[in-house]
Amino acid sequence: MTLYSSPVIIDTDPGIDDALALSLALASPQLDIKAITVVFGNSSIKDTTRNLLTLFDVIDKEIEYLKNTSPHNNDVHPEEWEKERRILLNRFEWSKPVVAIGADKPMKATEHLAVDFHGIDGFGQIHTTHPHYTPKDLKNLKSNRYEMSSRDAIDEILIQLKNSPPFTITIIALGPLTNLALAYEKDKRTFSRVKQIICLGGAINSPGNTTPCAEFNIYADPDAACILTEATKGFSPSVTIQNKIEMLHHRDHVPLHLTVLPINGIHLYIKVFTNHVTSLNTPLSVFVTAFMDYAFNKMRNYYGIYSLEMHDPVAVAFAIDILTNKSLVYTSEFVDMKIETQGIYTRGMTIVDSRPKPPSLNLETLERDFGIWGYLYATNVEIITSYDYKFFIGDFLKRVFNVDFFEY
Ligand SMILES: [Ca+2]
């Protein structure tokens, strides 16, 4: 493979939009997916794991379909693979992810799954309505597309970080942050070797999608989100990797670079989906159509609109853009952010301190909220304030389904 690929770990709770996000990631040569770690969230860990393996089973069939229908032109240069949709055909020759199973519950909070939206199986009831998709023997499932880890997700994350040069692996987090926080707690120094965590989470300047002020991933495990947020204290984008490597020699951790992509309003509308995907009749399109029908109906019943919010796929697209410096059409700011872990109505709220800062730091100004908030000058969590979504739906349809986007 001659294309430059960034090593990533994807932590996920599949999940309808997770399946779309993983399909996008697998079709993107910019990502060298070292591991996919599974966490509870949209459904139980048993279901999210089953859903991931179900998706791999469909990807397997999609690859066979592509092999039989693509022109047999083996002279195509790797740089051209993306155009010819050969990424999926060739990906597993050069990048075979390890799958590891992680946390089955939040660290402290009471469990809250998103089965109301994603269905009891987390996959729009597809295992009931389309039972032929359900892999028969999960324990003995053999696949050429991934390797099942002998470790749990926490140890797998740590071993991946330990075995790679420091500050090279990015973690894309698409579910509750439990696996990541547990790995950090277990071995801070090793976890600190992560280059960046790009996380879909939080409701900032918008209503939540689980409670009035909380987004699901943060709500599902606010303590995990709090641990990671606090672990960013002292982070500065101006610190070089060389500085960080030196820090690792004499500190038990290096402040984490956490980039939060709050929930956004990017919708895939049913008309666009139907016009572009439904009639393709490939294994992947037929499978995705089955659970998208469920999701579109849910959206209509809940919100009166026929579309699906593309939270997780947008996070993957954003991660690709950041890792390849391709678009850079986004704005972000470093803010002092905390997570509400205790609230009755505010559990999982992402709170940003936007109060005016005193012109200088002294005892008097420090005491102003001493013991309540603290860190008057902590601007450590990067939040994305705008991102150029214009091309997202077109890119998504092209990469995953090889169709050109047209307006309807
Ligand atoms: Ca998710």
UniProtKB/TrEMBL annotation:
SUPFAM superfamilies on file: Nucleoside hydrolase (SSF53590)
Molecular-function annotations in GO: purine nucleosidase activity
Single Gene Ontology BP annotation: purine nucleoside catabolic process
Keyword Hydrolase: yes
Keyword Cell cycle: no
GO cellular component terms attached to this protein's record: cytosol
UniProt cross-references to InterPro entries, sorted A to Z: Inosine/uridine_hydrolase_dom (IPR001910), IUNH (IPR023186), Ribo_hydro-like (IPR036452)
Inosine/uridine-preferring nucleoside hydrolase domain residues: 8-392
Keywords: Glycosidase, Hydrolase
Pfam family, one: IU_nuc_hydro
Family: Belongs to the IUNH family.
Record's protein name: 17605_t:CDS:1
